[in-house]
Amino acid sequence: MAFLIILITCFVIILATSQPCQTPDDFVAATSPGHIIIGGLFAIHEKMLSSEDSPRRPQIQKCVGFEISVFLQTLAMIHSIEMINNSTLLSGVKLGYEIYDTCTEVTVAMAATLRFLSKFNWSRETVEFKCDYSSYMPRVKAVIGSGYSEITMAVSRMLNLQLMPQVGYESTAEILSDKIRFPSFLRTVPSDFHQIKAMAHLIQKSGWNWIGIITTDDDYGRLALNTFIIQAEANNVCIAFKEVLPAFLSDNTIEVRINQTLEKIILEAQLLGVLKNVTFTDGWNSFHFDAHGDLNTGYDVVLWKEINGHMTVTKMAEYDLQNDVFIIPDQETKNEFRNLKQIQSKCSKECSPGQMKKTTRSQHICCYECENCPENHYSNQTDMPHCLLCNNKTHWAPVRSTMCFEKEVEYLNWNDSLAILVLILSLLGIIFVLVVGIIFTRNLNTPVVKSAGGLRVCYVILLCHFLNFASTSFFIGEPQDFTCKTRQTLFGVSFTLCISCILTKSLKILLAFSFDPKLQKFLKCLYRPILIIFTCTGIQVVICTLWLIFAAPTVEVNVSLPRVIILECGEGSILAFGTMLGYIAILAFICFIFAFKGRKLPENYNEAKFITFGLLIYFIAWITFIPIYATTFGKYVPAVEIIVILISNYGILCCTFFPKCYVIICKQEINTKSAFLKIIYSYSFHSVSSIALSPASLDSMSSNITMTNPSSSGKSATRQKKKDLQAQAFAHICRENATSVSKTLPRKRISSI
């Protein structure tokens, strides 16, 4: 009996939809009375036939193109309602239905919707206009359909006026999830958002980035196309072409302005709330509508394959839209899934790690060239759009690198060849200092040692040389705050003390052999050895102390080099560093002036000449140091200063002490009192013979001679008197020097010439 009813119903539907609409009842595809009527919209026919290109009369035309699959869906709805009526699910309530064929046409669906909205049990099928539909009773209570998203959107906008529930079974357009515009729409299929996301995921998983799109020319197709383009760009997939096929719909569109959402809930709204919260199962899986009115189902991933001339469709996987993963049932299918990667669908060859994509003039980002990452950049994945920058402070990378490498920390290490060389020279200098000290100690009573200023002065100078050589060790090794502060301070103070002692020696030598009374008087007033040494050294101590307090040298990390990190001592203040060196240079220049004036003193005991040579070496070394220090960069900067310190220290040490050591060791015959006096007398004779007396002295002596010999006259007498005057002066100087020497030799060790 049920089978017969179905056949009759089918026959009625076929006949009804094949004839043009004459009356409203002819428009209905299938109907059945009941207490509650459920509407249905199905595209049983493919399109609506019109005899003219553009209709001139507002009438519903004949539908053509029977769709068997949609017809079966219509029967499924009828069968479901009959099963509910034959069950005890709704005791005492019978469900009816009113199903319309939309003919895949928006206008036909809108006409059916108008009949759905007409007043219930009203003789005239009209839709009342109301400001409030809370108490309005429409013809049907809910609508199933329609299939196409474009039709569904138009129908849903009209049903929203009364918040009539609408359940879609095929409409997947993403826009239908917007509950502001479609508050009463529900559907039993997922949104196209998930479908498009799954497609983009599948394309990316297959390694493709150069694809084409074919879509339909309707709202569903255009919305899907726009969403897919966004998803494709997010996954770096390019669209090679877009083909839009015409849909089996008319070009007419209907725009409906929707009134403000009703505040009061009507009967249909109550039904809508129940539908939104309903949960049902198919025996294995549970289903429910989410907040957007979409059902939480997924998709089947199918593979179309041609085998022996026949096209077969094979299910490969299921797409879980909630977890965004593909569920593959077995290993064989998984292998088939992997084989998709073998299909090449790319515009350009992929860039390997260490390279980046360089977009060509093409409008597609998937068409590109591969370019090596520059220095200090890297890429560790294929097809990276740009290379990543290494942290230049701690890392570096060569050209076409796939990773960053840590920079090597460098400084003047103890095992560096240059460091070993300067250490050997420093140790050799210390040995020379000790040897000179021993030689002078063993010969402390000889004239050479006494003429050098005595053993105490020599010890102080040798100690300064020792400290200068030792200070070079603070320039080697990993810089520490202590070594950075100590090395410059130790060198500055010790070298200043050395120059101060040499300055007093230069003054003493010049004072001892100066025959100019005015110069002797000035030098005697100036010559205060202890005061000079303490004052000159004290000023340098103050400079270094202020330097350490206000801008002390510290350890600095130099990261400006591309592949290494240089640990170095920052001077803290270049002004303080320059002041310290400048002050030493001023003292050395003053000392040089005094030593230069005494360069022609007795040869075997003349320190002034050798001091002059030593200071010249100092000036040459430090003048050369300035441009080299300013232009040198890296870990060998400290070595530059070490070399300059060694050169200046060796120059002064060798010129000051080595000649005396040579006399003590190799010329012992002239290191005696008698030889000393002989050289002094010889120097005094040559000095007096070359003295040029001042005009005042000559006038004074001439007056004395004239007063003594008033009767003499003539040139011969004057010439004779001048000779006598020179002889008297020479005898006087010899006596003074002899007395000075005789008093000097047995005196204490600190005495000089």
Parts with pLDDT < 50 across at least 5 consecutive residues: 11-18, 249-265, 691-753
Output mean pLDDT.
Answer: 77
Number of helices: 21
What structural class do the secondary elements suggest? alpha/beta
Record field, number of beta strands: 24
**Architecture per CATH nomenclature, i.e. the level-2 architecture of the largest domain:** Up-down Bundle
CATH class of the largest domain: Mainly Alpha
Cross-sheet strand order for the largest sheet: 1-5-2-6-7-8
Report the helical percentage.
40-55%
The CATH topology annotation of the largest domain reads as Rhopdopsin 7-helix transmembrane proteins
Span between N and C termini? 151 Å
Subcellular location: Cell membrane
Keywords: Cell membrane, Disulfide bond, G-protein coupled receptor, Glycoprotein, Membrane, Receptor, Signal, Transducer, Transmembrane, Transmembrane helix
GO molecular function: G protein-coupled receptor activity
Protein name: G-protein coupled receptor family C group 6 member A
Explain this structure.
The structure is a single chain. The chain has four domains: 156 residues, Rossmann fold, CATH 3.40.50.2300; 150 residues, Response regulator (Rossmann fold), CATH 3.40.50; 52 residues, no CATH class; 257 residues, Up-down Bundle (Rhopdopsin 7-helix transmembrane proteins). 48% of the residues lie in helices and 15% in strands. It is rod-shaped. The chain has 21 helices and 24 strands. Helix 13 packs antiparallel against helix 14 and helix 16 packs antiparallel against helix 17. A hairpin with a 5-residue loop joins strand 23 and strand 24. It is α/β, with parallel strands linked by helices and 753 residues long.
